[in-house]
Amino acid sequence: MNIDAFWIIFTGALVAICCSLLGCFLILRRMAMVGDAISHAVLPGIVLAFLFSGSREIWTMLIGAAALGVVCTFLIEFLHKKVNVQADASIGVTFTWLFALGIILISVYAGQVDLDQDCVLYGEIAYVPLDIWLTESGMNLGPRTVWIMGGVMLVILLFISLFYKELYLTSFDPAFAAAIGISTTLWYYLLMGAVSLTTVAAFESVGAILVVALMVGPPATAYLLTDNLKKMLVISAVLGIVSSAAGFYLALWLNGSVAGAISVVIGVQFTLAFVFSPTHGLISRRRTSSPGRTNLPKEDTTTIEPAL
Amino acid sequence: MIQHVTDPVLEVHDLTVSYQRKPVLWDVDLTLPKQALVGVIGPNGAGKSTLIKAVMGLLPLNSGYVELFGKPLNEVRRKVSYVPQRESVDWDFPASALDVAMMGTYGQLGLFKRPGSREKKLAMEALEKVGMQDFANRQISQLSGGQQQRVFLSRALAQDADLYLMDEPFAGVDIATETAIIELLRQMRDAGKTVVVVHHDLQSAQDYFDWIILLNMRLVASGPTAQTLTPALLEKTYGGRLTELSRVSELLHKQNFPIRETKPTRKK
Amino acid sequence: MNALWEFLSMSDANVRFVTIGSVLLAASSAVVGCFTVLRKRALVGDAVAHAVLPGVCLAFILTGEKNPLILLLGSFITGWLSLIVIDAITAHSRIKEDTAIGLVLSVFFGVGILFLTSIQHSGNENQSGLDKFLFGSAAALVGQDLITFGAVAVLLLLSVLLLYKEFKLLSFDTAYARTLGMPVRGLELLLTTLTVLAVVVGIQSVGVVLMSAMLITPAAAARFWTDRLGAMVLIAATMSAFCGAAGAFVSFTAPAMPTGPWIVMLLSLLAILSFTLAPRKGLLARYLLQRRVRRQMTRENILKTLFQLGEGKGEYQHSYSKEQILERRQQPLLRMKDGLQTLCRQGLIQKNASGWALTESGKKEAQRVVRLHRLWELYLTQYLQVASDHVHEDAESIEHVLTPELEKRLEELLDYPTADPHQTSIPQQP
């Protein structure tokens, strides 16, 4: 394995860890599609950030663009709650609008912005090793993206480990959380903020689609493998890392996009779990089609947290 | 028949609550005594759950205020425990019975502190009280409806509160669980707690509760069971809605009228 | 400006075809989209749109050419497959629908991207233009493509027209449709097939990524203008057709621009306009209604205050100054001034040297409000057992809402009362 391959896989793994950890909470809150919406909606923020500041002050840029993700969730809720647009339609209207805005900005400022339309979708993780961070004395610190993603991962890890119990409780039973004085709105927006930050940081290297794949895929697979949230977090992070390594080699073999290949591996992982999971797989369900299971009524698929 | 008590555990003062801009509870005034097992009774859509949610601050109030132990909710949150309806959560959630029971201790833990062995012990004791200690590590989706309800109760017990508000704890549970739960609630009452239960079944209400709240969009009665579960009051509660009230609710909703001209104010 | 003129004149046959094509594609996806949105399956359309990409690429890999029929077939197959997979995942595991949609969407699209990039790197000369499927390009619609996709769009519109009644019932109440003996399963299947077809043809103009907007946005916007399905479908189709034509124009003037984002941007702006300006449901209409209600309440409160000021002495048409009114009833000064002026204009009060006084008709109006207030107070105490010291605040707002019909009903119920719970007399109807 050469050093470039290492950096690419390493970046993929960092992105995978951030996305899949947050994704666990997203899918448990039935908000996978809100995650999808955010991953598209941050685009105009990223383009503007590129336009205005080049690569100076990377963190202000990141946070500025991430703010747009939070604005997107706010808009979705505003449309749903205040304007009375149907929940799923408000998601669909909001993110396509913001994404279209982003693409238009890219085409209008094609000369000034180092982003092209395709890259927005599937990123250019293969270029990660090219953008090296050199200190003033000329020391090679490795690819810039790795540092950024590493920083974001630290933030996410801190966020989840420090506030695990708040995230856990507000995801499981918001009414009880509110009753004991934990603000569901606050934690909802903090989680969305974390999702936005991750998306923005990961965007350049892996694009919108892989962010969604990593946010939904590994958590969904892990959800079929365990009944413990802590284990689910660990398993999905591991699955994410595995998929980024396997995806890299698959892409090499097929001479295609790394991001695309990683999503393919994610799909394979899920299919395997879906069929063979010892507890929740197709086969074990067939065998023990348990009559004692409680069939609670299925609720609305897209839930939006109470806020505003 | 609305009986008030002095030094109440819960005081609801001129409470009006609406759901999606339609008032569902009008001008409710009630007080509850200490050390009582209270049943909230009324037909579907009478606002029983709404009352409990409003007390817990989960719904905005159009008018009036709620006081617990003579103080606003925020000052006494730890002494109040809430058991939501069982259907309100996703039982496929990756959590064990012990995890759920442990959530009862979160309120006292504060922002950064993580639950440790003390909290685990509290949660185990709570599970024991509801007879679920053998299922502590069982995933919650593998429990029966009655067992899930017991787990919910244990979470409230782990909170060790003085006032318990329970939304339909007997919905969808087997008779054995129902008897066990009511026995537990009686013990709690005898230990000096007040337990408020939203309940559906009139037959059992007679035996279960020593104080009854009859609701149907408004408070029909609140008082000791013998004086409230009378044919006349039940007829008033179940004998159809007050059409004028529903009509006004409708109008308020349709014409976008404010339900109250002024924001609710606290007691002067 | 010249370009616009040239475009509008449609003198160029090519422009004509592309425009007609785009309009048809956009309108047909909007029509089908209405049903998708009403059946709360809006985001499923998003998944189908993304799942079309691997189909297109596979069809190309297998045949090596860009025959529109084959590409259409390929995308149709994977589009359908994605729906089957979503249903299978939700039916046979504990994965919830939103997760299944997100998973299928990203994995199918990932497969498509892998194929697409792989084809691009393979050096096949024929492949150029496949990436147009990502963001759409109306200008690329020429010759056989246009005929094929146009035909499908017409087919779509025709089937919706023919089965309009059935689809309407299906979207409104599936269970009821079943009791009527309709082949619900078959209709659902057909509607889903139409959705997939709409996506397949729609991506020609907006591309895979933004296709869901073509289904969702016009439907969501049209919903604000009407409560009738027929009108909703028409409005959505018109909006969409207009934006489709605009997309063709963008493609015509700036071939390098992707058309999809422009169409979606226009559609979104139309939607935002609809959300704000639509009568009755729009934000602005609701705000105005609220303001009207608030002003009416202020006016009625002023009348009531003037009436109450005179009630003690029985001199109802005495004049009172602003300060006296305010002393009796706290309210924002500006709002009160505005209310006083309007009341003057309506001839309900008169201004004179010492302030304002009720006119004869003003007194009647004031009496009506006071009457309603006290009737409602009495109703609350008698029928709701509300303590008499708690009824005032409630009646303060309800007095403005009560209709004459309710007033009559209350009178009957309370047996034509003459005094309210505070033993003040209830003014009688003249």
From TrEMBL, chain B:
PROSITE patterns per UniProt: ABC_TRANSPORTER_1 (PS00211), ABC_TRANSPORTER_2 (PS50893)
UniProt keyword rRNA-binding, yes or no: no
Domain of life of the organism encoding this protein: Bacteria
Family named by the database record: Belongs to the ABC transporter superfamily.
Key words, A-Z: ATP-binding, Nucleotide-binding, Transport
Coiled coil: none
The protein's name: ABC transporter ATP-binding protein
Pfam families: ABC_tran
Domain named ABC transporter: residues: 10-242
Organism: Rufibacter immobilis
GO MF terms, alphabetically ordered: ATP binding; ATP hydrolysis activity
Automatic annotation (TrEMBL), chain C:
Molecular functions per Gene Ontology: DNA-binding transcription factor activity; protein dimerization activity; transition metal ion binding
Keyword Signal carried by entry: no
Stretches assigned to the Iron dependent repressor metal binding and dimerisation domain: 359-427
Record carries keyword Cell membrane: yes
GO cellular component, one term: ATP-binding cassette (ABC) transporter complex
Topology of the protein relative to the lipid bilayer: Multi-pass membrane protein
Transmembrane segments annotated in the record for this chain: 15-38, 43-63, 69-89, 101-119, 139-164, 184-203, 209-226, 233-254, 260-278
Localization of this protein: Cell membrane
Signal peptide per UniProt: none
BP term (GO), one: cellular response to iron ion
InterPro entries on file: ABC_BtuC-like (IPR037294), ABC_TroCD (IPR001626), Fe_dep_repressor (IPR001367), Fe_dep_repressor_sf (IPR036421), Iron_dep_repressor (IPR022689), WH-like_DNA-bd_sf (IPR036388)
Keyword line: Cell membrane, Membrane, Transmembrane, Transmembrane helix, Transport
Recorded family membership: Belongs to the ABC-3 integral membrane protein family.
PANTHER family for the chain: ABC-TRANSPORTER METAL-BINDING PROTEIN, METAL TRANSPORT SYSTEM MEMBRANE PROTEIN CT_069-RELATED
Protein name as it appears in the record: Zinc ABC transporter permease
Phylogenetic placement of the source organism: Bacteria, Pseudomonadati, Bacteroidota, Cytophagia, Cytophagales
